[in-house]
Write a structure and sequence with these properties.
The chain has 262 residues and is α/β, with parallel strands linked by helices. The protein contains eight helices and eleven strands. The chain folds into two domains: 8-148 and 215-261, Rossmann fold, CATH 3.40.50.150; 152-212, Single Sheet (N-terminal domain of TfIIb). 27% of the residues lie in helices and 35% in strands. A hairpin with a 4-residue loop joins strand 7 (169-180) and strand 8 (185-196). It has helices at 8-14, 20-33, 50-55, 69-78, 84-87, 122-134, 149-154, 216-225; strands at 41-44, 62-66, 90-94, 106-111, 136-148, 160-165, 169-180, 185-196, 201-214, 228-235, 248-255. Strands 1, 2, 3, 4, 5, 6, 7, 8, 9, 10 and 11 form an eleven-stranded mixed sheet that branches.
């Protein structure tokens, strides 16, 4: 399912209240805990590059991959606001995280802001894990966050609206979820009204995002299948053991050495 096409134009405005800096600090702490404090980083599903610019202050190079040309266009525009020394560290590529192969190795691979949950099928999930593994040196780390199944089922998603307005634009987004327990998924219908005040132009944007929620046994099997050893599993931003109220969890997995996989 193709998502984040026209949505990309208003994505950053809708998530202007998201604390990317605190989340990046959390990621840096996790990477440092397992010995990855410098070197090359691959970001799968980099979106508009909100994490990328922050990561480039600590790692080099930082390579971002995304399947939405609209999101990548927004990410490249952000480079104009970064110091040149950091811009030189960043490289963006269009590609599918299930199939892309860059023919180089990285110290860590990241998939942030529920990128893993956009992999709808078991095959898609396994392919994304294989992509991560194929780009890591022995002992390299894979870190990602995702929707956590017990939390989603205990506190199911509800209809929500969000409004963002300033001198340039007014954006109203309605999110209508449909729960599909037999598929471990939620289909979110987005209906967005986007008004450009300066140009006096409005448009409606409709997209459907199918989000897969995951359970720890699935994560363990995916790690094993791709040659990873699960190093840490917890609640996003707290590091605590996930509970029935946890919607967002994360994993840190280490790519096993070649000798240990035989």
């Amino acid at each position: 399912m193709r998502v984040f096409s026209r949505y990309a134009e208003c994505y950053d405005a809708l998530y202007q209240d998201k604390d990317y800096q605190s989340e990046t600090r959390f990621v840096l702490k996790l990477l440092g805990k397992y010995g990855v404090r410098h070197g090359a980083i691959l970001e799968l599903g980099c979106g508009t590059g909100a994490y990328t610019g922050l990561l480039a202050k600590h790692y080099s190079p930082v390579v971002g991959i995304d399947f939405s040309r609209g999101m990548l266009a927004q990410a490249k525009m952000k480079l104009e606001r970064l110091p040149e020394k950091f811009v030189k560290r960043i490289h963006f590529h269009y590609g599918d995280i299930r199939t892309i192969r860059l023919r180089r190795k990285f110290n860590a691979v990241l998939a942030m802001f529920h990128v893993l949950s956009y992999q709808e099928s078991n095959h898609d999930l396994a392919a994304a894990f294989e992509t991560a593994a194929s780009h890591l040196s022995d002992g390299g780390l894979f870190l990602c966050d995702f929707w956590y199944g017990p939390g989603v089922l205990s506190e199911p998603p509800e209809y929500r609206t969000k409004k963002v307005e300033n001198a340039e634009h007014c954006i109203i987004r309605a999110a209508t979820p449909e729960l599909y327990p037999s598929r471990n998924a939620v289909l979110v219908h987005y209906n967005i009204l986007y008004l450009n005040k300066q140009q006096g132009v409005s448009q409606r944007i409709k997209e459907n995002h199918l989000m897969r929620y995951l359970f720890k046994p699935e994560i363990e099997e995916l790690c094993q299948g791709a040659g990873f050893q699960l190093a840490q599993f917890g609640e996003w931003m707290t590091g605590k053991e996930p509970t029935l109220k946890t919607w967002n969890a994360y994993l840190v997995a280490r790519r096993q050495t070649t000798s240990s996989t035989h």
